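Hi W., the iron/sulfur cluster complex you wanted:
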Amino acid sequence: MQKQKSSHIIVPEGLTKVLLHACCAPCSSAIVEWLLAHGIEPVIYYFNPNIYPQEEYEIRKQESKRHAESLGIRWLDDDSADSPTPCCGYGHEQWREAVKGLEREPERGKRCEACFYYRLLATAKKAQELGITWFATTLASSRWKNLEQVNAAGMRAEATLSNQQSAISNQLPHVNFWAQNWRKDGLQDRRNELLKEYGFYNQLYCGCEFAVAFGKAVASDAAHGIKATPASALPNTTWTSCVGGPNKG
Ligand code: SF4
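Structure:
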């Protein structure tokens, strides 16, 4: 049974705390604000090894951390001392393995599905480690992403973890994916307002080296004398578009 706390955002019965996978601070901001206003405790988990190059990954990570600290809410990534399994941080090479063979996929194609699943499976596992029984993602707030793909990846991550648990008969709690369209109820407009209020870093491409906007950013940097890894230096690289305008989380 579910109860509705506003016109479009449906809170599952019993949900009071959620591990929120955050792709970036701008996409998190309005969602976190909504959760807090509705008595739900968010814990932010930054897990985005898709982002390239690492400097970009670090910038988005620090902005996400700054956002959480400004609100006094818990934030963690896999390097955080209070993470149950602190480990290896960036992990871009492992992510590349997860999308191997899909480098030439078009926007919203199978590479993005694999990318969503990879990140949400890690989120589901982290939620279980933390004893948080619900997880959600800010990926479901971006109009540049396919919401059905995001939600399918979340449900698949939930099912994968559940099957793994059954196979080893452990006592860890079942975790549930909160499939939600976070563009509703004015959150898209609020996101843009908060982006300005916080002065968040305003990224120009989705994240990985296979997005066409990344190629454009490299070209722009080069025009301004800024060194960056050329597309030709990246193996199996074809520029495809995941995004279509500024502020592309
Ligand atoms: S374009 Fe974005 S969503 Fe698609 S694979 Fe790259 S980083 Fe992931």
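The beta strands are 2-4, 10-12, 17-21, 41-45, 75-76, 134-137, 176-177.

W.
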